[in-house]
Design brief:
The protein has 9 helices and 4 strands; from the N terminus they run E-H-H-E-E-H-E-H-H-H-H-H-H. Pfam families: E1_dh (PF00676).
Length: 281
């Protein structure tokens, strides 16, 4: 499995989750063995000029924190894009580290149907209106080179348009939306054949007092013999042992019993996040 994340340029630089994810990229138990980040860099964040949105020259500079290689490529050159993406995939497979592809491009129309970019970016959009679209630019090059004929190009375009039109026509006939079509890994037994959730009924989850006492005793003991334990911890363990004896629980012991009972059933429990190692909470 190889993960590929698609980002916008303003989001890549501006969303804290991107920076946080980079820092998770090489941690034990968290690494994906390298993610390929593709940044669709249209050099504008909704209507914000990059100079007003970030302090670094490139949106991809946040990837420097993990020394990820960053490839800046002209998105008007499809062959250069393909080459760079191949190098990125090879890097990831060889070194199992993150890699970033910065597709330097532009947005021909506004951010959405309501947005008129000429209001906020008149100079940029005067230039964009003069730009030959990438499809035409590349097609003209291939036709000039003799790689494809004009007829082959037109047939390919017509074929693609036909696929889109047919799908659009079919979509109008759809009266029922099947949930299961949108699930990449449907939980077996969770949905019925029509993709509707089955009625939710939980099996009984209670356990015997004997088992709770056992878990409480284990949770208040030290697993290694003759192990010198911190006096503060000794007090906590002693108090926990007393609670178990007196059939009382606090929040921490209740959590121990919940985790312990799940472990007794042979189900793996993984705890992550702040203060987990110390068991502070």
């Amino acid at each position: 499995v190889m993960s590929i994340l698609l980002h916008g340029d303003a989001a890549f630089a501006g969303q804290g989750v991107v920076y946080e994810t980079f820092h998770l990229s090489d941690l034990p138990s968290y690494t994906t063995n390298g993610t390929i980040h593709v940044v669709v860099n249209n050099q504008i964040g909704f209507t914000t000029d990059p100079r007003m949105a970030r302090s670094s020259p490139y949106p991809t500079d946040v990837a420097r924190v993990v020394n990820a290689p960053i490839f800046h490529v002209n998105a008007d050159d499809p062959e250069a894009v393909m080459y760079v993406c191949s190098v990125a995939a090879e890097w990831r497979n060889t070194f199992n580290k993150d890699v970033v592809v910065d597709l330097v491009c532009y947005r021909r129309r506004g951010h959405n149907e309501m947005d008129e970019p000429m209001f906020t970016q008149p100079l940029m959009y005067k230039q964009i209106h003069k730009q030959v679209p990438v499809l035409k630019k590349y097609a003209d090059k291939l036709i000039a080179d003799g790689t494809v004929t004009l007829q082959e190009f037109e047939e390919e375009i017509a074929k693609y348009d036909r696929i889109c039109e047919e799908a659009y026509t079919r979509s109008k006939d759809n009266k029922i939306l099947h949930i299961k079509h949108w699930l990449d890994s449907p939980w077996p037994g969770f949905f019925n054949v029509d993709g509707e959730p089955k009625s939710m009924s939980c099996p009984p989850t209670g356990i015997s007092e004997e088992m709770l006492t056992h878990i409480g005793n284990v949770a208040s003991s030290v697993p290694v013999e003759d192990f010198k334990i911190h006096s503060g911890l000794s007090r906590i363990l002693k108090a926990r042992s007393e609670m178990t004896k007196n059939r009382l629980v606090d929040w921490a012991l209740a959590e121990y019993m919940a985790f312990g009972s799940v472990l007794k059933e042979g189900i793996h429990v993984r705890l992550s996040g702040q203060d987990v190692e110390r068991g502070t909470f």
